[in-house]
TrEMBL record:
The lineage of its organism: Bacteria, Pseudomonadati, Pseudomonadota, Alphaproteobacteria, Hyphomicrobiales. InterPro entries: PsdUridine_s_RsuA/RluB/E/F_cat (IPR042092), PsdUridine_synth_cat_dom_sf (IPR020103), PsdUridine_synth_RsuA/RluA (IPR006145), PsdUridine_synth_RsuA/RluB/E/F (IPR000748), PsdUridine_synth_RsuA/RluB_CS (IPR018496), RsuA_PseudoU_synthase (IPR050343), TruA/RsuA/RluB/E/F_N (IPR020094). Residues 4-148 form the Pseudouridine synthase RsuA/RluA-like domain. GO terms for biological process: pseudouridine synthesis; rRNA processing. SUPFAM superfamilies: Pseudouridine synthase. It is an enzyme of class 5 (isomerase). This is Pseudouridine synthase. Keywords: Isomerase. One of its GO terms (molecular function) is pseudouridine synthase activity. PROSITE patterns: PSI_RSU. It comes from Devosia oryzisoli.
Amino acid sequence: MARLILFNKPFGVQSQFSGDRPEATLAGYVQVPGVYPAGRLDKDSEGLLVLTDDGRLQARIATPRFKLPKTYWVQVEGEPDEAALDRLRAGVTLKDGPTAPARVEAMAPPSLWPRDPPVRFRKSVPDSWLAITITEGRNRQVRRMTAAVGLPTLRLVRWAVGDWTLEDLEPGQWREVPTGSVAGAAKDRGRQGGKASYRR
């Protein structure tokens, strides 16, 4: 039976099990033999990382051709106007080519855990939050997309992969879920990797 784990990756942790000290890796949080990330989150990003020991399932989650949506909550510098949001929705041109259309909405600041270290703020510059859903998986794609429309990313949290979400997972915690559907069973708690109190 394949195993599927949802992990809330903290800021500063590498999306891999090995690494040179003092870099923090997944090995310090998920002691489950044989599982590997299905896709990645860069060191400076937080949120949902899916791990599995099934190679086919790993590919189905991570490979862009399956178009599994991934939703990010993104704190940006500045206040986006509709023109900037429309550019993101239509797709923007990056150095490695144009992005596919994205689902983008302005959102109220979410009730998230404090980031360590905290985001640096400038009193003279406002910030805003966006919910961005993409089906691609380029390196640092969301950060590059917001920068392309003049909205540098300050904080990036992946909230969902398909129907799986971060709900009830504090940073550094994980839970195991059934593998019957790649779409996920977001409300199934399965085996808990520790009690969490986080709510959306």
